[in-house]
Input
Amino acid sequence: MLQLTSAVHTAMLAHAYDGLPDEACGLMVGSLGDGHSATVDTFEPCPNVAASSRIYSIAPKDFMRIERAADDAGADIVGVMHSHTHTEPYPSVTDVNQAPDPSWHYVIVSLRDELPMLRSYRIVDGGITEEAVVVSG
Output
């Protein structure tokens, strides 16, 4: 299960729209909890250095900056969010191949339909499992 505050949820949706026509991306910071659930306290939007509507890439300098700040705050990078501009919110083959950490939560915001759809997945050894997303506060 992935727990988001309403402010984090809103920030992810807004960043997805701001990234158009390209995919948007960013890192989620919070607590990884027991390994099956996580709480996201902040969303750190990042530029998509791939500048593509089909793939995303976070610059190493942005990752390092956010990781250091998280470490200093006693927090974890919980995972990554990215958008799909024209497809459903389900991990593509590229998304699965790019999944760097089995402990992470992978959020996809789809802008395909009139209303955005946000879903979260765990990706371990190429296997994809959808998880519940709880938005509170």
The helical segments are 6-19, 60-72, 93-98. The longest helix spans residues 6-19. Strands lie at 2-5, 25-31, 38-46, 76-84, 105-110, 117-124, 127-131, 133-136. The two ends are 16 Å apart (CA to CA).
